[in-house]
Amino acid sequence: MGKKGRSREVSRKSEDSPAADRPAPTEPGIKKSEIEHPKSEIKNNSEIENPTSEIKELTTDHSQLTTKMEVHHHPDLHHEKKPWKEYLLEGLMIFLAVTMGFFAETIREGISDRAKGMEYIKSFVQDMRRDTATFSDVIAFDTKKMAALNNIFACYYNIEKNSGSTGCLVPIMKSSISNRVGNFTDGTLQQLKNAGGFRLINKNDKDSIVAYDHAARAFQNFESTIFQQRQDIVRDIYVKLVDFKAEPMLFPDSIAGNVQSPLLFSNDKALINEYFNDLLLYRRAIMTQAAQLGRLSKRAEGLIKYFDNKYELGNE
Hints:
Elements: H1 3-16, H2 32-36, H3 38-49, H4 52-73, H5 84-149, H6 152-161, H7 169-176, H8 187-194, H9 203-241, H10 269-311
């Protein structure tokens, strides 16, 4: 067959073959390899244009992860609510615990306060024991003074009759130129007043201590005012009357019995009369002081006995 016959046959075949089997015309800028492999291009395009399968898979994984996290962080979301009785019981238990703690602390403080109150009582009793010893000394001293001052009337009449008969004044002057003070041991009382110690002891004990304190203050007030005033007046006239040369035999510890020199520097009857009047007032002041101190001493002794019996202090 010649060339013309072959070309005609090819032409017929191309005309008879369908359009799908014909190669697409090549456009400018498109490579031949791209034309020869259209299926791979379509596959790539479908992957880009339709990523739903991967998104669905990612979404599913994410929802599973979220569910796991929620289950992990919120374990009680699916638990049932406790009955209200359990809440009430828990609140009651908390209330009882707080109340019991409060009562325990109150009891502890009460025990501590009672112990401190007892220490105050013991200390106060010790102070009163010292006070009663002081009171006894002062009362004994004043008793001797009163024995001498009881002779002021007889002595005055002797001197009035005989101005040189002044020997009776020696014991009177010895006993009237000095005195002893009934000092108090009030350290515990000051603590009870200033440190709030009275709240730590019961009412009856407090009333007894307060009554004793009032009596003690009344005695100290009398001693520092009326009694001290009478004492100063007697001393002032004593200095004006007594001869200096007779002074040594008038010392309180002197045992001289007979006056070897004139006792009085002046025979001024007015001054002597004033002196005896002041001695009389001084004697009354001593009697008042001795009576008050005696009552106070008895009150202290009674309190000591009261606290000893009540708290079994003994000689503490």
